[in-house]
Write a structure and sequence with these properties.
alpha+beta; 6-stranded antiparallel β-sheet; metal ion binding; protein-serine/threonine phosphatase
Amino acid sequence: MVNDEPILIAPVSNPIRQEMGDRAEIANGLVSCSLKRKRPLMIEIPNVLCEIPVDVFKERGGDDDPVCFADSGVGVYSLKGKKKFMEDSYKVFASANGDKKFFGVYDGHGGSKAAEFVAENLHLKIFEMLETTSEDKAKEAACKAGYLKTDEQFLKQGLDSGACCVTALIEGREMVVSNLGDCRAVLCRGGGAAEALTADHRPTREEERRRIEDKGGYVEIHRGTWRVHGTLAVSRSIGDAHLKDWVMAEPDTKVICLTPDMQYLVLASDGLWEEVSNQEAVDVVMQSCSEGKKQLVRSSSEKKCRVVYPCTSPTPLAKSKRIRHPTGRKMPTIQQKRREDERCCENGSPPSKSRRISLVKQTKIKTHFPSNENEVLIEKPPYDGLLSACKKLADLAVNRGSLDDITVMIIDLNHHKA
């Protein structure tokens, strides 16, 4: 019997309805996650960081291009790193009579003012001291006095920047090498052996640390590097007025007698030496310069293969007799005929048959070429070994991760020996 009475459904409260809904979803195989990940709070950036202009770290236009310099016996390549401004500098200078030649590489820090000032004044002060000193070790004393005088004048500028230096003064068969800071001079001897002529002035050296502490200073590690008062990573430099009581400007100087086995001298800032060892630098120099010499020899052999006909008579003719052709036309004189043969020689074509016969009949005279004729005939090859070696070294340091400014100078000692 069917019950026709209506069924009354009571309203279900919200909590019960929610529970019933959850059970229904679970029964249908749908699991809903009641714990949702909340969005993190917005990071508040301090205003002091927001005020830094964006274009401060943009590289400058043409000023960032590498600087190349090549002259007889020296090559330089200077490359800006990731700093805002280029802080390296260099100098190549010779005395008025050419008997003294000066080479220097300068690595600035805290700005470029110190390196620029040293590049303009250090060599002049050293030459001035050479003229006034009369000691037995005049060259060594003059270089030290020139460094100290330059430092004294720069401190009067009231600037806080500083500069590390490495210089070489060549006169006759003697070379004076001086250095401050972490710029370095490396000598390349015959066979490709590297020899460091300078030692870096760093606070980690026992004698340097002891000297600083004896004067009341201290050395501590900061950002992974030992520094004077936790700021400067070198213990000697020109400038750095705020640390001048502990960071002195007296260089290490030595006089070296040049010998035939000394081939090249490499002067460079620490942007190179932090990534490239002394022997690696010498290997690159030897390879690049040997390639340049091979090309020079090849160019010389090509020049010598040319056939040059002598176009001048050993004895000048007193008169030029003019002969007439049977038809009445004037025949060319002997001198005119010779000029025609000379023009043929210049154009590369051989002289006429009569001229060749006359040359055979002439007295055989041996032509002695001057010792420097090869230098006159051989054009300068497009491949410059010194400059190419400088660029290869700088690129090698950059590829290994160097972010500092890099300046490399290579000097051919064979060219500058007296």
